[in-house]
Amino acid sequence: MALSFLSRISQPSQSTTGSGGMLSLPSARATLLASVGCMLVLSLLMVASASIPFALSRGMTELDFFYRQLLYMGIGFVVAAIAYFLVPLRILYQTTTQFVLLGITGLLLVATLFGTPINGSKRWLDLGFLNFQVAELAKLAVIIFVADFVVRRSFEVRNGWDGFLRISLVIGLLTILLLLQPDFGSLVVIVGTVFAIFYIAGAPYKQFIALGAVVGALAVMAIVFVQYRLTRALSFIDPFDDIQDTDYQLARSLIAFGRGEFTGVGYGESVQKLSHLPEAHTDFLLAITGEELGFVGVAMVLLLETLIIGSAMRISYNALKRRQMRMSYTAFGIGIIFIAQTVINAAMNMGAMPTKGLTMPFFSYGGSSMLISLIMVAILLKIYKESPEIGKSQCRYY
To answer: Is the backbone peptide bond immediately before 182 cis, with ω within 30 degrees of 0?
Structure first.
């Protein structure tokens, strides 16, 4: 199942130079590096533009958030370089490493519950130079754990319910901690990624139907019985029925897109960022991009995200062909994280989904997301580099 699924979504990347003289596409590594690099430059440009009014209103310098984003990228590059050059992939798939990583993540999630709320949520740990959102680390920890789990417990995953029940214990604990923060958006991304990895690992369809029904019912309950979630869910249905209260943020986002039209009003010329659209430089940076750079700018962002996701899937498929299942599922899981956050953030900005606090990978302002996203890129590059070097007799460890 995994091979056929990944081969379909990766097929365009298999073009090679043929007798007709057609040029082959760039390697997955080259595409990944170029796309991430372009996205980071675009992020700096748009954060600089979108954050100026917000910074000035708080007595900061005009480019304060630009320099902070640059700092977060620098920290991310350093940590990613350490992960790439000093951490062997095989260590990630050792049971001890995974439980230590999950344990640290769990303890940090607990610690956030005793922190100071920001915008009504306790999602961050104050590290002085950075408010670290532990849910971002949880996404990476879950990917590595599940990628190894579906290989070690492949028989249980493919036959019966044992595989799902075992993984549910771990995910269940994370679910409780994330709901207590609360961070419903990250929970949706994590659960969706786990389901996706189980799907390509060959879990029976009947399990997805049954568990999908249960998860769907729980999600509806989590929305209906929590007032602010219900308000968000209802507001996106008609974003202009109460534009001065519950629909204010979404309505302003749609106005920004409408003003931008095809080519935008011009870089730095946004009106909605002038204290009209809250979180203009974070969750709603895409809306400001739409206003200033128009459809062309938004299409550029989404194209770069698509290239990054496609590179992750190509790396996953190449590892899968060599039967390096853990590495393949890891790269696939990273790709799914990027897909989920890109789709949710874009849909939220465009009024197709209720507003959620999820960033656009490599684009939105935020240290935690940038740090973990760059570490994920380092892991993808590590898989790309090491995969051809691993002998057939060693593939079972990867």
So the answer is: yes
